[in-house]
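Journal club prep, notes for RB
We'll compare a predicted complex against what the paper describes. Inputs for the benzylamine case:
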Amino acid sequence: MQARFDRLVELASRSVARRSSRRGFLGTFAMAITGVAALPLLPVRRGSVAEAAELPAKPTGAAGKEAGAPTKPKIVTDPSSCEYWKYCAIDGFLCACCGGTSTTCPPGTEPSPITWIGTCQNPTDGRDYLVSYNDCCGRTTCGACTCVRNEGEKPMYRMSLNNDVNWCMANDNPNYHCSVSVILGVAEK
Ligand code: ABN
């Protein structure tokens, strides 16, 4: 029985060997392996592809190169614009729109001795600056140029880290009018 089985296997092997070459076998084997390896790639939607779709299409050609060149963000220098860099942590009305400047209170008001301190990056030199936000007190609310940026602020349940506060509270006249921003110096890293 064993001998007959051995003979059968021998004949089958010889028949296969006659019809195939080693090189042909290796070629077919390699193709099979490559195909199997590529299979897991097919149905997956890659995240990077999805993100790339969100970006503006990359222009092609010479004209496209110019259109696709990185554009520098516009630096705002107008102190009555809420986008002005040193207002990064402010919450209030800009005194520059209320008869004062970005650093001085309007006539008839005086600065609060208690302040809110923020750290803002100056886009011109890329450095971080400590900025004091003083409220100007003694007249009713100005109401012009509302500017609420509050970078770095924490929610009200951490009161010492929240800027939604009338810093005029310790002034003789605690009426809040507007806010100024005064650069204290470069922030140490
Ligand atoms: N620090 C400006 C301000 C004043 C009153 C109330 C909220 C915020």
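Talking point for the session: The radius of gyration is 36 Å.
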